[in-house]
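re the bet — no i am not wrong, look at it urself. input seq straight from the record:
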Amino acid sequence: MTRVKRGLTSNRRHNKLRNLNKGYRGTQSKLTKVAQEAALHAGAYAYHGRKRKKRDFRRLWITRISEAVKIEGISYSKFIAALAKKKIGLDRKILADLVLNDPETFKYIVDQARLINPPLED
C-alpha cells in the first residue's frame, strides 16, 4: 500500500477554519478544535439571529403604528381590525413606513378605517 501524506489537505481545511474565525479572541481563532466549536456555535447564533430579526422588525413596526394611531384616538387592535373589515391590504411594514415618511397619507388611512368604526362618545 502506498503512503498517503495528508498535510496539505488538513492544512488547507484548518486555514479555512482560521479564516472563518478571524477576529475571535484567544484560542478560538488559533487552535483547531476550539475554532471548530466556535464556528459551529457562530453558525447556530447566526441562524437564530436571522429568525429573530423578523420578529424584532415586526415588533418595531407594531410599536410605531400603535403610537401613531393612539395620537389619532384609536387603539392599535381596533385600527387593524377596521383595516381588515374595510379590506385595506396594507401590511405593518408599509404602515410603519407611512408613519415615518408620509404622515398625511397615514392620517388619511386612519380616517378611512375610522369610517367603519366611529369612536364611542364618553
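see?? The mean pLDDT is 92. told u. also The first helix runs from residue 7 to 20. so pay up
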